[in-house]
Amino acid sequence: MPALRPVRESILEIDDNSWIIGGVLLLSYKTIAPSSGCFWSDGGSAFYTLSELAHSQQPTHPLSSTSRVQLVHDAGDCNAAWRIGEAFLKVQALSTPSRTREHITLNYLHDPANGSVPTFPIPRVLYHTEHDNRYYLFTSRVPGNTLEKAWPNMEEETNQVCVRRVVDICKELAQRENNKICGVDGGDLSENWMKPPQAPDGYSHEMLLAYCKEVEMNCDSFVLHHCDMGPTNVIIDLTEGCKVGLVDWEVTGFVPKEWIRTKFCVCWAMNFDFPSDDVKKSMDWRQRVQLDLERQGFLEVAEAWNSRFSKGNSSASTN
């Protein structure tokens, strides 16, 4: 059995118009839309089609620099993403098999049987599969640019509109409640920022609940939250006003309401990644959001969280 390639090498090129994904899927570029199956637009007049790969010994090579398919995100060998026309492919190593899958969350949100569908743009699931302990997810593209790309050229008034819209989205999602910390299907919520430093593997309700209580969050009920509203996951479409969408729903689930604002207060991973040493500028986005959340009545436990985080890291360094 051949060795498993790194996640970032999940797509191999056959030729200019065809690719093999994970050794199990065939991606093709077509000038005519098929009558059935999984396909989507390239953003122009052509299409991409996806099908299961028949046994094939066709020679392949890594993606060329001129390929229509390009890597847009590479997080070590944990996950990677590619833009393919008007769709994205995400491939992830399944380190936590019990966690809620992103396609389940997206389908849950789009289904009116689960409550009002979101009033803001989110991706639609095109295809998903798992193979060799890896998760493959194709989703539609949300129109616009990432907030990180758009923010430097936005007017102050537009900045404020964007902040307020994200706070409104937090409030909209939080109307959905549950009696445990979990994903939308009851699976584990892999929220690394809501568990103690040096904690054992896993994201059980009991482990996360104990930590939330330790930092004095109110745990009487739990509300739905995206949990990763950093500037690369907020999509801004300025073609008609300021339309705000959200992508990357893999860490979405029910959490204590205080966690919503607390996450914006403490999570430096949601800073802008601008080429500057200006810390205040890099924190501008999440600071604005947490202040507007405060005005909307959201509480936070940032001081207790920071104290517990420092304590955990100090203990680890002395062991």
From TrEMBL:
Domain spans labelled Aminoglycoside phosphotransferase = 85-250
User: Any transmembrane segments, and where?
Assistant: none
What InterPro entries does the annotation carry? Answer: AGP_Transferase, Aminoglycoside_PTrfase, Kinase-like_dom_sf
Q: Which Pfam families match?
A: APH
User: Which PANTHER family is this protein grouped with?
Assistant: AMINOGLYCOSIDE PHOSPHOTRANSFERASE DOMAIN-CONTAINING PROTEIN, AMINOGLYCOSIDE PHOSPHOTRANSFERASE-RELATED-RELATED
Supply the name of the protein.
Answer: Aminoglycoside phosphotransferase domain-containing protein
Q: Which organism is it from?
A: Hymenoscyphus albidus
